[in-house]
Amino acid sequence: MKLRHPLLFVGLLAPASHAHAGGIPQEYDYGFQVYQEDDDRIRVESHYVRGQWSLLEGTSFRMQYLNDAISGASPTGALPGGVQPYVANVEDVRTGILGALSQQLGRHRLELEISQSNENDYFSQGYALSDAIELNQKNTTLTLGVNVLDDTVTVPGLGDKGKESYDFFGGISQLLDKNTELTGSLTLGFSQGYMNDPYKVVQRDEVFRTPDMSIDAGDGTAILIPGVAIPITNIYRENRPDSRFRQVLQLGGRHYFAAEKAALQAALRYTHDDYGISSEMAQLEWRQELGEHLEIAPFVRYYHQNAASFFVRDLNQVAVATPADDPNGSGPNYSADYRLSSFDTNSIGLRLLAKVSENLTLSATYERYTMKGVGEDTAPSGSYPSANMLTVGLKLKF
Question: What angle do CA 317, 319, 324 make, to 5 degrees?
Fold first, then answer.
């Protein structure tokens, strides 16, 4: 089943074809993205390079290199207006590399992927194995796979901590006709180990009492001076559970409208975990051809989640005697991280795609992202960021 619209469905429904009979088909991508939060908060500048080569009949290799430079200020979890710092400066560089080898064996497409990511205080190694099975004259594709991450977190004052994650996923892609595709996938993920963010804290209002004192009255007697109660605010490390089980269901669909020379793409995602967080995401994108070489694609995205069962603004009402300096995940659990609160996010953007030649495609994307707390279990309003994202890229195909 061959489609006539390479800009709208490149790499989606039709198998890759060899561009030159005598050479090695290959693709290269370069992208640069700037993520800038309002009020000069967090800024991330990202570069990525991707390549893909068809080595032998049925065998291909792909790789990706990523470099992120992160700087700015991020909420700590302390409340604003107090003596404890509400935001802290952040500066880091992350580099990541990924390689994947795939092989077609009859109806099966097997792929082995190995990845590595490194930051000043975080190191991650990943391994993934998947199988895409073609059925029904290649109109139906079943995908099964597993992904394993082995992470090391360097916690200030506490040294290195370990975390492991395991994802098991399955999906289906079904062509209804030459212009319509439906997809669905389910992921079950389990993580265990050090689940805290080492830079997030929770504050508690407490009382410091000075020692009782006595002074000589000068006549051989002593005057007793009772201790004085002084209110103070202390901060403590957060204490999330030491494991997390999550479920992710995603549904999608794409349809090409021949008369309008346009395609509509939709996606829905539902998640749940034993933190008590449930979330919903909906996204729509309209991809419109403008002539033979230009495509414009406006898109919108909405996301909502409720708060984790252990989200708090402070520890004032939490029954814990002395919070541990090295929390191990045992109860009671608590975190003031705004990312675990109840909130909504909205995104609206525009993507441009220009096919300069058979070998070169240019792209540019602008996205406006906003987040706000909703309901009762929210962080202070200033914790939630809004940001602008600009991405430019090019693709070479031979």
Answer: 110
Q: Which domain holds residue 353?
A: 27-397
List the single range of 21-35, 143-157, 303-317, 336-350 with lowest mean pLDDT: 21-35
* Tokens 């994947």 found at: 100
Domain count, the chain: 1
In this structure, is residue 285 part of a structural domain? yes
CATH number for the domain harbouring residue 117:
2.40.160
pLDDT at 230: 87
Residue 329's φ and ψ, nearest 5 degrees, are 95, -10
Residue 5 lies in a domain: no
What predicted TM-score, i.e. pTM, was given to this entire model?
0.89
| 164 within 8 A of 128, measured Cβ to Cβ | no
Is residue 10 assigned to a domain? no
| Residue of 5 and 189 predicted with greater confidence | 189
